[in-house]
UniProtKB/TrEMBL annotation, chain A:
Keyword Transmembrane helix found: yes
Listed transmembrane segments: 7-24, 30-48, 60-76, 82-99, 106-123, 129-147, 167-188, 555-576
The keyword Transmembrane is assigned to this record: yes
Highest taxon, organism lineage: Bacteria
Designated name of the protein: DUF3488 domain-containing protein
Keywords, comma-separated and alphabetical: Membrane, Transmembrane, Transmembrane helix
Annotated ranges, domain Transglutaminase-like: 404-475
Lineage: Bacteria, Pseudomonadati, Pseudomonadota, Gammaproteobacteria, Cellvibrionales
Range of residues in the leader sequence: none
InterPro entries in alphabetical order: Bact_TGase-like (IPR052901), Papain-like_cys_pep_sf (IPR038765), TgpA-like_C (IPR025403), TgpA_N (IPR021878), Transglutaminase-like (IPR002931)
Originating species: Seongchinamella unica
UniProtKB/TrEMBL annotation, chain B:
Protein name, UniProt field: DUF58 domain-containing protein
Top-level taxon of the source organism: Bacteria
Residue stretches spanning the membrane: 49-67, 73-92
Transmembrane helix keyword on record: yes
Keywords, alphabetical: Membrane, Transmembrane, Transmembrane helix
Length: 661, 332
């Protein structure tokens, strides 16, 4: 083993440090015992480092490896999937530390560490997480540099400078590669994040579901309009259309429940100028997307359903960016098919008898379906209905009867469901629509931030000649919810974001906190739009915008050109600048003296002391013996004398040198 | 790794390639006592670790593609470009470094010789983890961090042949800062170690029998009579210094012993008739060492070389050098 193959202690210190910064962003998704293994391995390695303990022998190592595998299998019930993989990687990382003796072990450990950083990005691409990960990369690279500085026996920061400089130089090259590297689809299916909880709206809606969601201050998605932002009372973000009521729960129709002839969207004639906007969704682990009515998307891989929703065949696991055009005034489905009419009128037999009786009565009194809609909405306005985030529990049977006639306190889903049931009972096709309503306009960059607490449910009724018409019974009960948002609507109740006392959203009234929050949100938006949401479409647009038609030759030219732009200056700084550090005038003069003697046939040997050289020269050139002795004596005096040499003395020295000829 | 130092027994093609390579590298890095590393003299290539790192990058790229994760792309590209930037940094670690041959210690066959080099930097920048090795020598790793120059001693066995021993080309290697690239140079420092003939005892010194008492091979030390003092001259044997006088504060004096004119021995090429040249040199070498140890004056007569009798360290070196280089060219 070469002496240089040992691991300097400094490198070991950095490796152990990286071990802890690596686990930080993963901490919420690994079982606690992995942390224990971590601490144990670090402790053992530190004891080895201090010479107290020795490295584990192979049976111990084997035991630890088997225990690690078993532990992960027990914790996750599987070895497949991202979370078990990450736990496995982290355990392997901790155990590898226990056999870190030679340089080649360190390479394996540190490359593994880079991979662990990468796995973090498969879970979250949040800006703060990315900062932590960049720090991790710096620390790992520092450990790698420290590994090649032999004899560094104490923990020190010296290698960090080298690592930092190199990463800074690599960063611009990385950006070029990032934007130019062709984006291709997945090569094979990969394990999905099995443990990740679905967030946002769910496919099922029973009373209480939306209100539960409204307790969260998380962001659902951000919207960037090309033109002006429409008034917030128009911002109904349709996500799910729920046509089926079963046991008090509304749900969307499954794909296979729709007959083949009804699956295609009956594309309506778009009316008027479209709204153009792009949406970046936070991961939901669901398939549907949000859009204003009547939405069509130009992004690839987005489907349009027969009930005028947009969705994606793939689950949204990461931040997802898509472009939408909406024509709000379009008449949707002027002709209703028999199957669709039947579905949208279906009610469970016998449930909610009082509601149905009331609806039938209203229908009988109305001249047209439109009038029936008005009458029911009037009912909500007239009677003492209360809009609340804390509605009383409803009985299992005949919930809507209990709500409409007894409790009369509910959240949007109560009103939407009650309204649709009454419509259907009155013979008007109707359905529940779930999504978000409103949003906060960020003055920093003009985006609309839609939070989870903007979750909303409303209804659509089908009217002859007008197609599907949006009716929001909540607006009849609590118009401020639609005009101003949830916080204002709940101002009296004081129940806004009850579970997150520290959410900055609660302190929107405090100017400085709000400004910081909005700035950070704008930053997050740009981050998501430019980095996280960068895909083949966006790449194509970007390259086309820059270079017009894009050919392979141009691609290579841009890549090489931009790299040269970075690498040439770096090479210049590294290799050419900082030339020979200036010799002092004294040394220059002495070298002049040596050159003069060399021309007379006495060259100074490597490492020859001035005095020895002088003796040799004197013997060879006796006529100059005195001058040579003089120069050498003066040089010794000036070079080794205390304090700086005087200009006058240097002048005399120069004259003495010149006398050698 | 070391194509320069070829060993026999390979196919003709390989030998030819070796020869070609040696020729090529000799023209590229000609032998010199002082070599400053520049782009003609530095080679750089990904190391094994670098290749392993490349495989890791490929796996990371696959993960990025399959999970469609842009930040994973970003990290993979950052590490890939780090690799590229490392080319410059690894190269810069060797570039502008000056290697100077200082000296090579003479040695007897089969012994280790010591080569001394000096590494100097010409720019105010660090050179870290420089690995130095001759094909058969031990290895050293040095760094130039705060100091501008550093001396390095390497030890190598000199082989069986008297004369000049050439250690071959010096390997100067470094993989700082990341270890992903190996940067190296093969330098011929034109450094030769003198190898003396192997001392070969002979039972007696022919032609000296008359002068040597009772035929003993080794004259016993101190058998000569004390004669007087004289001032110390450079090269006098330490054994003859009058230490007591020195301790008393007198100037450095050397004890002189009575040396009869006919006691000054001549070691002569003609003393061993009928023997081969190498054997003669070996015997002469042995006797020169013997007389030196005894403190007797001895002279040397070789064809074309005559060294007058004397007894000092400088004299011994002169004699051994003459013996080592008999029939060979003197290089310095």
């Amino acid at each position: 083993m070469k002496a240089q193959q040992q691991i300097p202690r400094n490198a070991l210190g950095w490796a152990i440090l990286s071990m802890f910064t690596l686990v930080l962003p993963h901490i919420e998704r690994i079982p606690p015992w992995v942390l224990a293994v971590y601490l144990f391995a670090a402790f053992w390695r530190i004891m080895v480092y201090r010479g107290r303990w020795s490295f584990p022998r192979w049976p111990v190592k084997l035991g630890l490896i088997i225990a690690g595998f078993a532990g992960i299998l027990l914790s996750f019930r599987s070895l497949v999937g991202l979370e078990p993989t990450v736990a496995l990687l982290l355990t392997a990382f901790a155990l590898k530390l226990l056999e870190l003796a030679e340089r080649k072990d360190a390479y394996v450990l540190l490359f593994l560490a880079y991979f662990v950083v990468l796995t973090e990005f498969l879970f979250s691409q949040d800006l703060l997480i990315v900062l932590v990960c960049v720090l991790n990369v710096v620390i790992i690279t520092t450990a790698l540099v420290a590994l090649h500085r032999p004899g560094d026996d104490r923990f020190n920061l010296r290698p960090m400078r080298q690592a930092g400089v190199m990463i800074l130089q690599a960063a611009p090259l990385m950006l070029v590669l990032f934007f130019l590297f062709p984006r291709i689809g997945p090569l094979w299916t990969v394990p999905i994040k099995s443990q990740q909880a679905k967030t946002g709206m769910s496919e099922f809606m029973s009373p209480g579901d939306v209100s539960r969601l409204s307790r969260s201050g998380e962001v659902a998605f951000r919207v960037n309009f090309e033109g002006d932002v429409p008034p917030r009372s128009e911002l109904y973000w349709r996500g799910l259309v729920m046509s089926r009521l079963r046991q008090g729960t509304w749900s969307a129709l499954n794909f296979y429940e729709v007959p083949a002839s009804q699956r295609r969207q009956n594309e309506p004639e778009p009316l008027g100028e479209p709204l153009r906007y792009s949406i970046i969704m936070e991961p939901t682990q669901q398939r549907w997307l949000y859009g204003l009515r009547y939405a069509r998307s130009t992004s690839s891989g987005i489907m349009h359903s027969a009930d005028f929703r947009i969705f994606r065949p793939l689950v949204i696991e990461d931040d997802y960016l898509y472009q939408v055009r909406s024509w709000p005034d379009t008449v949707l489905e002027p002709e209703l098919s028999a199957w669709r009419r039947r579905i949208e009128l279906e009610l469970p037999d016998g449930a909610n008898p009082r509601t149905r009786r009331l609806a039938a009565q209203i229908a009988a009194e109305s001249a047209s379906p439109a009038e029936a809609v008005e009458r029911v909405l009037n009912l909500f306005t007239r009677e003492p209905f209360v809009y609340t985030l804390q509605p009383p529990l409803l009985p299992e049977r005949d919930r809507m009867d209990a709500f409409l006639f007894d409790t009369r306190r509910g959240f949007c889903e109560h009103y939407a469901a009650a309204f649709v049931i009454m419509m259907r009972a009155a013979g008007i096709p109707a359905r529940v629509v779930a999504g978000y309503q409103g949003g906060e306009v960020n003055p920093v960059n003009g985006t609309v931030i839609v939070h989870q607490f903007d979750a909303h449910a409303w209804s659509e009724v089908w009217l002859e000649g007008r197609g599907w018409v949006r009716v929001d019974p909540t607006a009849a009960v609590a118009p401020e919810r639609i005009e101003l948002g949830l916080e204002e609507a709940l101002a009296e109740e004081g129940s806004f974001l009850p579970d997150s006392p520290l959410s900055p959203l609660r302190y929107r009234k405090i100017d400085i906190i709000n400004k910081i929050r909005l700035r950070y949100d704008a930053l997050t938006y740009s981050w998501q739009a430019w980095v996280v949401g960068f895909d083949a479409d966006k790449q194509f647009d970007l390259l086309k915008g820059f270079f017009g038609d894009f050919s392979a030759r141009k691609f290579a030219a841009v890549l090489l050109g931009s790299w040269a732009l970075v690498l040439v200056p770096v090479a210049w700084v590294l290799l050419l600048r900082r030339k020979t550090h200036a010799l002092s005038r004294l040394d220059r003069l002495y070298l002049n003296f040596c050159r003069r003697l060399e021309s007379m046939g006495v060259a100074r040997k490597a490492g020859e002391a001035p005095r020895d050289y002088a003796l040799r020269a004197q013997r060879k050139i006796p006529r100059l013996a005195e001058q040579i002795a003089d120069v050498t004596k003066r040089y010794d005096q000036l070079a080794y004398a205390e304090g700086a040499s005087q200009d006058g003395e240097l002048g005399e020295f120069a004259r003495a040198v010149r006398s050698i000829r | 790794m070391n194509a320069a130092a070829g060993t026999g027994g390979d196919s003709k093609l390989l030998t030819l390639l070796r020869k070609r390579f040696r020729h090529w590298i000799n023209s590229r890095i000609p032998p010199s006592r002082v070599v400053t590393l520049n782009q003609r003299r530095i080679f750089i290539f990904p190391s094994k670790v670098g290749l392993f790192f490349g495989v890791c990058l490929l796996v990371m790229l696959l993960a990025a593609i399959n999970f469609q994760s842009n930040l994973s792309y970003g990290l993979t590209f950052l590490l890939a470009t780090l690799f590229i930037v490392a080319v410059l940094h690894t190269y810069a670690n060797l570039s502008a470094l000056t290697v100077r041959a200082v000296h090579a210690r003479p040695a007897f066959p089969g012994q280790l010789t010591e080569f001394e080099l000096q590494l100097e930097r010409s720019r105010q920048k660090e050179h870290i983890g420089l690995y130095l090795k001759w094909p058969d020598s031990d290895a050293r790793t040095v760094s130039l961090v705060d100091e501008d120059q550093v001396r390095v001693q390497l030890h190598a066995p000199v082989g069986r042949q008297r004369g000049w021993f050439n250690p071959g080309r010096l390997l100067l290697e470094s993989s700082y800062p990341l270890g992903l690239l190996r940067c190296w140079s093969w330098i011929d420092l034109d450094l030769h170690a003198l190898v003396y003939p192997r001392p070969l005892p002979s039972p007696e010194l022919p032609g000296l029998a008359a002068e040597t008492p009772d035929g003993a091979a080794v004259p016993v030390e101190g058998s000569d009579d004390f004669y007087g003092f004289r001032d110390y001259r450079q090269g006098d044997s330490l054994r003859h210094i009058y230490w007591k006088g020195l301790a008393r504060g007198q100037s450095v004096q050397v004890k002189q012993y009575a040396a009869y004119a006919d006691r000054s021995v001549w070691l002569d090429w003609e003393m061993f008739p009928g023997l081969g040249a190498e054997q003669r040199l070996s015997h002469l070498c042995f006797w020169a060492l013997e007389f030196d140890r005894a403190g007797d004056e001895y002279g040397l007569r070789l064809p074309g070389v005559t060294i007058a009798p004397d007894c000092s360290e400088r004299h011994r070196e002169q004699v051994l050098r003459a013996l080592a280089l008999h029939g060979l060219e003197d290089r310095s």
